[in-house]
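[job 0412] stage=complex_fold ligand=NAP status=START
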Amino acid sequence: MAEISISIGGGKKIDPKYDIAIIGAGSAGLTAALYAGRARVNHILIEKTPIPGGQIVNTEKVENYPGFPEPVGGFELVDYFRKQAEKFEANIITANVNRLTKNRNGFSIETDEGNILAKAVVIASGASPRKIGIDGEGKFIGRGISFCATCDAALYKGKTVAVIGGGDAAIEEAMFLTKFAQKVYIIHRRDELRATKILQERAFANEKIEFVLSYVPQEVLGDEFVEGIKILSRKDNSIKVLKVDGIFVYIGIIPNTDFIEIDEIKFDDRGFIITDTEMRTNIDGVFAAGDVRSKFLRQVSTAVGDGATAEFAAEKFIE
Ligand code: NAP
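[job 0412] stage=complex_fold status=DONE, emitting structure tokens
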């Protein structure tokens, strides 16, 4: 490949060759960049959005990240991560990664801003919200269906909304929505929630929340905007329609791996990248960290550990 110089973000000159390229500036990627900066490794962190942070940016408050006895805003926390990484000269650019391929000397990362070569890659591209896949969902995204309560809750002041899901994200975001909406249904497919007990206790105690358990969504109803949701009882197959103005979907995540074009790389049965405890994938020089990898617990606290380990392992690989 020809030597190129990429100009990004107000004329920032980027050398297209690096020892370590980190893909994604969520909690894991920013931690990897902090470690790379402090180790004075020739690195680059590529983030597709001008605002780094990944999914945590969509979280109103984080209360289980150690060091913050009072809840810290997701956006605020990630901003601390970024500032700390930049203090140690983390090299962050904004560019969308279209392809990651392996070549004879390392890896090629095709971005909207040009190609980058790296000897090692840390994939920290995170995950995206899973869609429900029912009639009307596509039509009403942005017209009453949302995947981000932090972004859109204020639009539902005094209104009725439904949250789909029974995990941590669904319960946390339903609680947040009660600050605005007059009523929040939580529609969950089982009669037991998956969320952490302390979150469950709070939600059960919240008078604005009504649980609709053992129901699955069937169809989103409405003309121009969401007006209701049709749901099916898993107990007796009866159908019910809830009148709602908005629907917030929190039914899990899917890994952001579309850009990976290295055939031999191993994924688990849900499409998350398999690593060992040092964040090494089965491909020499490729590491994965954070939500994109197959793991037991997805939290900010585990993502930062992954990011640190992956960067350190990548350094050792290069040495
Ligand atoms: P999750 O833990 O995977 O929960 C997804 C929920 O959606 C489950 O209750 C699941 O039901 C339900 N679901 C899945 N597919 C469905 C479908 N097709 N139709 C209806 N319901 C469906 O996902 P998450 O809550 O988005 O959280 C993702 C990760 O981030 C988790 O590891 C979570 O612990 C973490 N997180 C942590 C915090 C925190 O620590 N404060 C906050 C947010 C997220 P079943 O229960 O029946 O499987």
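The pocket of NAP is lined by residues 64, 132, 164-170, 172, 188-190, 194, 216, 250-253, 298-299 (CB under 6 Å).
[job 0412] exit 0
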